[in-house]
Write a structure and sequence with these properties.
Elements: H1 2-9, H2 17-33, E1 43-44, E2 51-53, H3 54-60, H4 66-69, E3 72-78, E4 95-97, E5 100-101, H5 102-117, E6 123-127, H6 132-139, E7 149-153, E8 157-158, E9 160-161, E10 178-179, H7 186-193, H8 195-201, E11 206-211, H9 221-229, E12 235-241, E13 251-255, E14 258-262, H10 272-275, E15 283-292, H11 293-301, E16 310-316, E17 319-325, E18 339-342, H12 354-361, E19 365-368, E20 371-374, E21 385-388, H13 395-400, E22 411-417, E23 419-422, E24 427-435, E25 441-444, E26 449-456
Parallel strand pairs: 2-18, 3-6, 3-11, 6-7, 12-18, 21-22, 22-24, 23-25, 24-26
Antiparallel strand pairs: 1-13, 4-5, 8-10, 9-17, 11-15, 12-15, 13-14, 16-17, 19-20
Length: about 475
């Protein structure tokens, strides 16, 4: 491995050398620990007091404290591409609502916070080599606006062959051997970039981290105040109650006397069904995290940050390869006084698929200063279950099938499959299932009301 890495270093730019050094450390950890397995008998729920209900915090704090806000920086994980939704370039550039992209909404949230609190909270973006160049171009449009935007790149590491555990050699035609090693790379990349020291020198003490596609992840005054008031708490993970749609989400456990994040990839096969249970493991990680900057610096300088490695298996041209990744939440066990806060579901609103996009574009939500809130007209505070077929997978195809997004504030469940289009002003209520079989087309006419309906074939829906 050392010889192979040495060869790769002679064929890459100087900027990749540090990433390869980091990879060597990651690989050596992988070799040392890959035989270690979770002892399922040692797993138990976090001890009482380690998961704090958000309601307890919000009862004490309902508004922002300017002193706490002044010490805050907001970081968005911006390394992902929009390929899962049929887009090229950074996912953060996808238009989400009212002509605004994910990045636009993040900028608006921080601008509003700064204006309200007379503060200078910076927005920090962790890019990957996939998103760096395009993001830099996009950021030009915010020049002159009242916000400081910082960015840095996470590491770039080589994949390895599964059978021989050697780095996949560079292919100038494909260039697919490199990958960003998961968002757990945040800590070392923030430290290596010099931005960690810069933020600390500017008086910043707290870092709020979230995925840029989680539209529920705005700065919460109650959690920020709790973090500010409790000097011995270095880390807060926001968790929320699991539903059947979240069975694969990582959960907090106590393991060998320490709180730890358990991901499904680390669970022995015979216990996967138990892990997915919503009765035994009732919460999951939203990836909204609050971290003390001084604690990151201490752990990085002492080389005492430890996170489990996730072996992500891939196939390249029929050859099995491995990506060594880490989850940002896995660092929780390294921090003093770490806790979880059980937050409302409204703080977890990720947009991963076009069906998620339909929800956030609809009348279910209102938007203020880049922040979405559930409409008061929604009787049930949970979101409807929406399943859209392959014809809706790509964003462009999805948008072409709706003249306007239907009104769904009273919807419980929607399934759409096949060649289906929606006219302007359609209203969906209750449970609606629309199935166009192969060779058939269903056009839902303008202003149609579908309430507890099953639509198949070429059935015409009358206007109301």
């Amino acid at each position: 491995m050392r010889a192979a890495l040495g060869y790769i270093k002679t064929n890459v730019g100087a900027g990749l050398h540090r990433g390869l050094d980091d990879f060597q450390g990651l690989f050596e950890q992988y070799l040392a620990e890959r035989a270690l397995k979770i002892d399922w008998s040692k797993i138990s729920p976090p001890p009482e007091g380690m998961i704090v209900p958000h309601a307890e915090l919000s009862e004490r704090t309902s508004d922002f404290d300017s002193a706490a806000v002044a010490k805050l920086a907001v970081l968005k994980l911006n390394g992902g591409l929009g390929t899962s939704m049929g887009c090229t370039g950074p996912k953060s550039a996808i238009t989400v609502r009212d002509g605004l992209t994910f990045l636009d909404m993040a900028v608006s949230q921080v601008e509003y916070l700064n204006e309200r609190c007379k503060a200078d909270v910076p927005l920090v973006l962790m890019n990957s080599f996939n998103t760096h160049a395009d993001t830099d171009l996009i950021l030009r449009k915010y020049e002159g606006r009242p916000i400081t935007i910082q960015r840095f790149n996470q590491s770039q590491m080589p994949r390895i062959f599964k059978d021989v555990l050697q780095p996949v050699p560079k292919d100038d035609k494909e260039k697919t051997e490199w990958f960003p090693p998961g968002h757990g790379d945040l800590y070392r990349s923030l430290y290596n970039s010099g931005l960690l020291d810069q933020l600390i020198s500017e008086g910043k003490e707290y870092l709020f981290v979230s995925n840029i596609d989680n539209l529920g992840a705005s700065v919460d005054p109650a959690i920020l105040q709790h973090f500010h008031d409790n000097v011995n708490c270095e880390y807060i993970m926001e968790v929320t109650d699991k539903t059947r749609a979240d069975v694969k989400g990582g959960t907090l456990i106590e393991y060998e006397g320490r709180m730890r994040l358990l991901e499904i990839a680390q669970v022995p096969k015979q216990h996967v069904d138990e892990f997915k249970s919503i009765t035994k493991f009732r919460i999951f990680n939203t990836n909204n995290l609050w971290v003390k900057l001084s604690a990151i610096k201490r752990l990085m300088e002492s080389s005492s940050m430890h996170m489990e490695i996730i072996e992500n298996k891939k196939s390249m041209g029929g050859v099995s390869v491995i990506q060594l990744e880490q989850a940002v939440g896995a660092a929780i066990k390294n921090f003093t006084g770490a806790i979880g806060v059980n937050v409302p579901r409204s703080r977890f609103l990720p947009v991963k698929l076009s069906q998620d996009l339909m929800l956030v574009m609809s009348d279910l939500f209102r938007m203020t200063a880049g922040t979405l809130s559930l409409s008061k007209a929604r009787v049930f505070r949970t979101l409807p279950l929406v399943k859209l077929g392959p014809n809706f997978k790509k964003v462009d195809d999805f948008l072409s099938r709706f003249t306007t997004i239907p009104q769904i504030v009273d919807l419980d469940h929607l399934t759409v499959s096949g060649d289906v289009t929606f006219g302007r002003g359609v209203v969906l209520k209750g449970t609606v299932i629309i199935i166009a079989n192969e060779g058939e087309t269903i056009n839902i006419p303008p202003c149609a009301l579908l309430e507890n309906k099953i639509v198949t074939g070429n059935l015409r829906i009358l206007d109301h």
